[in-house]
Amino acid sequence: MGSEARVRSAALSRDTNETKIQLAINLDGGDFPPETDKRLLEGGGHASQSSKSQVIAINSGIGFLDHMLHALAKHAGWSLALNCKGDLHIDDHHTAEDVCIALGGAFKDALGVPTGLARFGSAYCPLDEALSRAVVDLSNRPFSVIDLGLRREKIGDLSCEMIPHCMQSFAQAARVTMHVDCLRGDNDHHRAESAFKAMAVAIRMATSRVAGREGEVPSTKGTLST
């Protein structure tokens, strides 16, 4: 079975003068790694959900960001626990950015060497009148193009300018190439949520294991590590 049987999980802490983040992730759902900070699983909040295949508990301090990350984890098939204490007395920028940097880094650590995987993923996801498309490449070349066409200044307590920036921050830290576009929609909440759902489904496709290609690098250059 080799590396394909590896549990694809990671836990990390990221402390700066601006934010203090604890995070644990399992890309295939199920249990978190043994080194997970137990405080992550205490409490709950509105962005919490537990099922036989997933555990999700998110508290960034920004309600709409929690809602988006909840949708991302649910539809990507992850178990995800995240807690952040940030300098929200200043604004939402450091918290939203750092949470997504930490999430991207944990995703990269959990994924490990991308052998035996589909590598590419794409998805369309609707939410009522809104429709978004996401395309992901586990390329080890961090790049993103995000066009959501949001018009409001804020959704809840999250600045709309931070929503594409969150996706960009994730892609940079995860070292993936990612294109996300909202193709249509009148409601900015729907536009943003459909985009996160499309991103989730595309990531789930890209990280899926391909039977018969165990140990193979899905690249003509023979590596996705450099």
Question: What's the short story on this structure?
Answer:
This protein is of the alpha+beta class and 226 residues long.
List keywords for this structure.
226 residues, five-stranded mixed beta sheet, 4 helices
Describe the structure in your own words.
- The strands form three sheets. This protein has a five-stranded mixed beta sheet, with helices on one face. It has a four-stranded mixed beta sheet with strand order 6-7-11-8. The chain has a two-stranded antiparallel ribbon with strand order 9-10.
- Strand 4, helix 1 and strand 5 form a beta-alpha-beta unit.
- With 226 residues, the chain is of the alpha+beta class.
- It contains four helices and eleven strands; from the N terminus they run E-E-E-E-H-E-H-E-E-E-E-E-H-E-H.
- The two termini are 24 Å apart.
What string gives the helices and strands in order? Answer: EEEEHEHEEEEEHEH
Q: Can you list the strand order of the major beta sheet?
A: 1-2-5-4-3
* Count of strand segments: 11
Strand content: 25-35%
Number of helices: 4
Give the rounded overall mean pLDDT. 94
SS-based class: alpha+beta
Any chance you could write out the topology, listing elements then pairs?
Blueprint (H helix, E strand, L loop, with lengths): L8 E7 L3 E8 L21 E3 L4 E5 L3 H14 L2 E8 L6 H19 L8 E8 L2 E8 L5 E5 L6 E2 L2 E2 L2 H13 L2 E8 L3 H19 L20
Parallel strand pairs: 4-5, 8-11
Antiparallel strand pairs: 1-2, 2-5, 3-4, 6-7, 7-11, 9-10
